Amino acid sequence: MKNTIKFLAILVIISSFMSCEDLTDVTFDTSITERIDVNIPNTSGESAAFSAQNIIKLENGSGQIDDYLNYIKDVEIKKLSYKIINFSGDENGVVTVSFNVNGTLLKEHVAMNVKAVADSGEIFEVTDLQELNTIATAMKNSKQVTISYNGDAITNDTLNFKVEVTLELAITADPI
Fold first, then answer.
1. pLDDT tens-digit profile of 126-147?
2. Residue closest to 174 by CA, chosen among 77, 64, 78, 79
């Protein structure tokens, strides 16, 4: 009888450890890269407004995101950056532009020569922790955010380029 009680006690302890292990949150990193296509017609040297946008969806992340998309408890943005790529057009064209996520201004550039920035490969990083936390909450709640690149351009020819946006995320999810 004593051996049976001891055996059951050990079995209960072992099973409680196993069930606690099953309930441990899953954490992993993922990254998402999306591009905003910007196509500005010739403005004949006059200032003209332009706007371009895209959606970053959590489901497009790398790694384990597909398995845990419906079990996400927390999203942390480790890094949010963007750069200008695939430039073509007016080498002297300039833009005064804002980079926005969900309508919130994150970065602004005044009289930026797009070709020079594209050629340099400069990477712009968003570092405002409050803004990053707001974006992370939106990613957690709606699984997506809208990115936009809006402003005014002065060109003497067409101006075409892409804004490549990269989000590096730490995800916490319930176990499956």
1. 999 999 999 999 999 999 999 9
2. 64
Distance separating alpha carbons of residues 168 and 79, to the nearest angstrom:
5
Q: 50 with 150: CB under 8 angstroms?
A: yes
What's this model's pTM, rounded to 2 decimal places? Answer: 0.86
Give the position of tokens 């957690």: 140
CATH 2.60.120 assigned to 25-173? yes
Q: How far is CA 87 from CA 70, 96, 164, in A?
A: 38, 16, 12
- Residue 152: name the closest of 51, 37, 53, 82 by CA: 51
DSSP state of 104: E
Q: Which amino acid is at 91?
A: E
Distance CA 2, CA 57 (A): 59
Q: Which tokens is 112 given?
A: 């930026």
Among candidate residues 161, 81, 75, the one with its CA nearest the CA of residue 117: 161
* Residue 111, Ramachandran bin (φ over 0: left; ψ between -120 and 50: alpha; else beta): left
**Contact by Cβ (8 Å): 40, 145:** no
- All structural domains of the chain with their residue ranges: 25-173
What is the spatial distance between Cα 149 and Cα 117, in angstroms, rounded to a whole number? 15
Percent of the chain with pLDDT over 70: 87
Task: Give the rounded distance of the alpha carbon of 79 from its chain centre.
Answer: 8
